[in-house]
Write a structure and sequence with these properties.
By secondary structure, this protein is mainly α. The protein has a domain at about 90-450. The chain contains 19 helices and three strands. A three-stranded antiparallel β-sheet has the order 1-2-3, with no helix packed on it. Strand 1 (about 475) and strand 2 (about 480) form a beta hairpin. Helix 10 (about 260-275) packs parallel to helix 12 (about 320-350). The longest helix is centred in the N-terminal third of the chain and has 40 residues, at about 75-115. It is a multi-pass membrane protein. Pfam families: DUF747 (PF05346).
Length: about 550
């Protein structure tokens, strides 16, 4: 197409096409260059067609064998995979450290029932009897802790005498006559029932303690303690029977000839992996499950002790029979440890939780111990363990006392001397265990930098008293409270505070230590709305402690 003005050729888009330069001397013309280019293209096509038969199977295999790749191009992905492997390798060590610490916490609460609780009940009864001699200086006849100790002792004695009406031998032969499948189903039902009744039982005991110690304006209000007391006695008795059936079923499994029932009961632990590993867990959920595993492992140890006592009694305390039971006991313990390790390793792998979280769990348990040892503690240590782990020592202690007294006959002066020496040994073990646990707990709390949570940083001034005097009353020295005279106190009785005084009791902030999951930590301001939000969140965590011994169902 020609342009109307100049007559120059136009391209398809309307722009003028530059003219090709004139061919110089010795240079090919544009027509010759086009012919040459077409010749080379046709020659290249012919060469390509000729090289197709050269792609043989041998060259393909050679290329596959010599093909290379570079992992550093995806460095972040492979580094993450390597860290997961390292985490799985660290899980057994960190988990067993937590389990070891938690089992000794349960042992300390369990020994408290046999050693210090009888002495505390005796001191409380002595104070109650000799109170008219000293005069009534306070409105309360007994301190709240002394009232709770008396209630625990009375419940323990009543349930012990009620357990004498339960025939252990008849229960053993009744369970032994069932088939293996029935016993397997019964054992699974007993485990579920134990978790359910434990979660509800601690609520019953706490309701009894609060009903008996709360301030009452009228004397008639004390009558409400009676129904709570009967409910607590009924709970402890039923829970003790439930644990007795569990121990009897385990005893039948140990005494079976082909050990098939014992194998089935051990395989039940591996079924637990299926129900836990493939669920989504956060740090709080894993903490509750770890506490439940600690409680379950300690309970199994006590059940194995009861089984060994019953078997040794039947064989007239022959030490040779103990070596017959030893392999089965080791098998049950090893299977429990292996299941816990595998379960926690895969839970942390699937939910991207580091192994350092178990040191946080241990510090939280240590915080509960340290806070319960203070002068103005809000709860007893054994009750704190019961709420945190779902471990209630009263039913287990009732059953163990019943089995020991029926298996061992005490006759003669020398036998009573041995009993007294054994009791002194238990007290020594309890004191030594408490001292070591308290020292380790202070160390763990200090490493976790949770010392400032042991005391309220802000204290409100009481009307009529300056604020400086109150602040001087409470000083923080590694978790041990100091009074005005400078004397340190850990287990003294708390002083009853009046209603017009501000609350100086130490609140447990261990829940706030594990409140937010990974990746969601936020700065908390001092606004009133934020404080309300924190208190609501803390209340939810308080409720979660009592749901099926910490095993939350999502």
């Amino acid at each position: 197409r020609q342009d109307s003005g100049r007559g120059e050729p136009k391209t398809l888009w309307g722009s003028s096409e530059p003219r090709p330069p004139a061919a110089g001397p010795g240079q090919p013309s544009p027509q010759q260059r086009t012919e040459t280019l077409g010749f080379y293209e046709s020659d290249r096509g012919r060469k390509k067609k000729r090289s197709l038969p050269d792609l043989s199977l041998l060259r393909f295999i050679s290329a596959e064998l010599t093909r290379g790749y570079f992992l550093e191009h995806n460095e972040a992905k492979y580094t993450e995979r390597r860290e997961r492997v390292y985490t799985c390798m660290r899980i057994p060590k960190e988990l067993e450290k937590l389990m070891f610490f938690g089992i000794f916490l349960c042992l300390d609460a369990f020994l408290y029932v046999f050693t210090l609780l009888p002495l505390r009940v005796f001191l409380a009864m002595f104070r109650f009897i000799t109170l008219p001699c000293y005069g009534l200086r306070d409105r309360r006849l007994l301190q709240p802790a002394q009232v709770c100790d008396i209630l625990k002792g009375v419940i323990l004695v009543i349930c012990y005498f009620m357990m004498h009406y339960v025939d252990y031998s008849m229960m053993y032969h009744l369970i032994r006559g069932q088939s293996v499948i029935k016993l397997y189903i019964i054992y699974n039902m007993l485990e579920v029932a134990d978790r359910l009744i434990s979660s509800f039982g601690q609520d019953i005991l706490d309701a009894l303690y609060w009903t008996a110690t709360e301030p009452k304006e009228r004397k008639r209000a004390h009558i409400g303690v009676i129904p709570h007391f009967f409910m607590a006695v009924l709970y402890v008795f039923l829970h003790a029977i439930l644990i007795m059936v569990q121990a009897t079923t385990l005893n039948v499994a140990f005494n079976s000839h082909n050990k098939s029932l014992l194998t089935i009961m051990m395989s039940n632990n591996f079924v637990e992996i299926k129900g836990s590993v493939f669920k989504k867990f956060e740090k709080n959920n894993l903490f509750q499950m770890s506490n439940s595993d600690i409680k379950e492992r300690f309970t199994n140890y006590v059940l194995l002790l009861i089984v060994c006592l019953r078997n040794m009694e039947q064989f007239s305390w022959n030490p040779d029979h103990l070596w017959v039971l030893f392999p089965d006991v080791c098998m049950v313990v090893a299977s429990e440890i292996a299941v816990d390790i595998v379960k926690h390793a895969f839970i942390t792998k699937f939910n991207d939780i580091t192994a350092d979280v178990y040191s946080e769990y241990r510090a939280s348990l240590a915080f509960d111990l340290v806070s319960s040892r203070q002068k103005n503690a809000y709860t007893d240590y054994s009750d704190s363990v019961s709420r945190r782990m779902g471990f209630i020592p009263l039913p287990l202690a009732v059953l163990l006392i019943r089995v020991v007294t029926s298996s061992i006959k005490v006759q003669g002066v020398l036998a009573y001397v041995c009993v007294v020496l054994f009791y002194c040994g238990l007290i020594s073990l309890k004191v030594l265990n408490s001292i070591v646990l308290l020292g380790k707990s202070c160390q763990y709390v200090k490493e976790a930098k949770m010392e400032e949570k042991l005391f309220n940083p802000v204290l409100t001034a009481t009307p009529g008293k300056p604020a400086g005097k109150q602040q001087g009353t409470f000083k923080s020295t590694q978790g041990i409270s100091t009074d005005e005279n400078g004397s340190t106190s850990v287990t003294n009785q708390p002083v009853h505070q009046k209603e017009n005084m501000p609350s100086l009791l130490v609140t447990s902030n261990s829940d706030q230590f594990l409140t937010t999951p990974d990746g969601e930590e936020k700065d908390i301001s001092q606004d009133s709305s934020e404080l309300k939000h924190r208190s609501a969140k803390k209340d939810l965590l308080e409720i979660d402690r009592f749901t099926i011994c910490g095993n939350r169902i999502d």
